[in-house]
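Good morning,

Both structures are done.
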Amino acid sequence: MRGRYSSMMTEGVPADEAQAIPELPTTAWAVLGMLSHAEELSGYDLKKWADWSLQFFYWSPSFSQIYAELKRLEKHGYATSRTVVSEDGMRGKRMYAITESGREAASHWVNHSPVEAPVLKHSVMLRAWLGHLAEPERMREILTQHIEYTETMRRRALADAEGADVNPDWAYPSAVLRWCVKHYEAEKEFAEDLLADMDKLARQRSRRKPAKRQNSSDSH
């Protein structure tokens, strides 16, 4: 069962208003939140924004998921769309904008919905936890690749944070991206410590194997 930092915060919120806000997937609120940062965005723009920011701390939804949520948001009146035709008149691009009710709903979600505690699902840690079943060299390879991955993500988050600094409207995303930079710095340090522990355990494991073989031969 997932933990929560707080229960439903409904103080100061009329009961009919709280009930009027539909229960939408978190991804829908994320898409609506991205729309709140601009006047209009296309589905392609939203995917780029998700890859630029959301992926570092939540996830980056696919194009199909983004369009499914846009359709859901339009159904609830939280977003509108229009087709913009290119200058040659041959191609049309659908642009989406948040409505006033959509902005109010997003604000209500941020301020009053339950805050779910983050869930850590770490496949590298799971394999290290099962290290007694792993080949030492394979475990070292997995951890080394993870360390390289965290450094790549740290550099990307830093570049995106610095890019966001040029626009005052992106102050909050920039602050979160800098948190992500620190997260990946810490993750890299933790992985390096774990690698050192795995190497130590591998040396201990190798020293025990000959003794086991010797005991087996003595029994015969």
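Second structure follows.
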Amino acid sequence: MQPFLTTILRSLGARNSGRTPLAIAIIVAAVPGVGAPKAAQTDKPAEVAPRGQREAKDITFGDWQKLCFKAAGAPTLCRTSITGKFPTGQTAVRVDLIEREGAPTARLQLFVPVGMYLQRPARLSVDQGSPVRLPYSWCLKACIAADVAAPRIVKEMETGKTLAVDVVDSNLLALTTLVPLAQFAAVHKGEPAKTLDPSADE
């Protein structure tokens, strides 16, 4: 109990001024931090657990591809990407590793269809390793989750076999898609398939 509150209570007792227990309770309640449960001050909302799991079926992946963008006077921006599609041609998942010339960090970006539970970040892991979380930043025609890519996950992608993409839909069902990594290292470290000048069409 705070020293100043102890002093107040002792003073009230010494005076025997006829204050009722209710009056003393009101004084105590008015002191910040007194009478409030500690749990209410420290508890954080728990992450909602998925209710079940459903299979992401019939996804066909293309090849990893590296594209670079070079505008006059600007650092080169390169994107190493892979896209998986449903039989209808709709994009099921797209993974981008985005790197800017001279920047100390890269950015990992994920595209998935709308209908995801946005409060639960997407999780990416290589060969059942420790996952990284990508919070959703945009959801319109597709949902986009992105964050700074830790050097660890980039190295794991270069040496690993599969990248597991774990998301939860709006029905709280978990979906896991395995993205092949066999070509990633060679494409990521190699020359770009194309270098485009975004200002050329202006």
